[in-house]
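Progress report, Aim 2. The chain analyzed during this reporting quarter is listed below.
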Amino acid sequence: MSQVPAGVDEHALNEAARSALLDALIALQGHRDALTIVGAQAVYLRTQGSSIRSAAYTSDGDISIDPAVLGGNPRLEAAMQEAGFSRRGNQPGLWERPQPVGTLIVPVEVDLLVPHQLAPEPNSRRRTALPPHDEWATMKVSGLEVAAVDRSLMTVTSLTADDARSFDAYVAGPAALLVAKAIKLDERIRGADKRPDRLSNKDAGDVYRIMTTVPADDVRRVFASLSDDPRVGETARHGLDLLRSLFGAPGTRGTELAVQALAGDVPATRIRALAPAYVASLS
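Predicted structure tokens for the chain:
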């Protein structure tokens, strides 16, 4: 969720973000079955074979938490604090820790998120009542529901040669990531008049990265299996509808944002052809 600070090298920040994510996963390992890596970290783990030359980078880490699986020990807030994280300002679920990035000390964020429709109280409040955990330890977010079902274990490693750590963690699958990105893009596009700073073409670029790496037939089969799932089916169907509206034609808004994100790397004509064809194959 955080932006790249001015003067900070993206590559070094990406390495620091992976290090922080590993530290959080290790601190919360008692809850491993309830945790799923989502967001850009998950996209890049799922698309390591991508031919896109643009650097895959992110400045933070996102972890989705399934309340139905979450236990009581360790307390989320205690585990994060013991790992050196503190909550950012007055925001629930946003945890940060100062880390050296090049010659600077930069706050690197790891966010603990609860899918809105899976929360015990799916109201408009962003903090979540998950006793015995502090209600400020997590933030409710829409669009992550599908990751509670479409996920699998992957080995997450450090990105630096001097850090040999690895951790087996659940990572959101491609269908879950496409749903989450589509819902996020739709929300940011609709709110762009008031908050243009929140709309990033990078999210659309990540959608295209998935499209060029994961076969459409594989994603279509997952969507078919998710459609009637009692917990996440509604979100999966909504996300697929948004993918059609955002990327279903050469000139739709999502396609245009992907063209902007990958300008100078991927020809616009290729994006305008592939994205609609991929989306059409998901039905």
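The chain has nine helices and eight strands. The CA atoms of residues 212 and 237 lie 22 Å apart. These observations will guide the mutagenesis work planned for the next reporting period.
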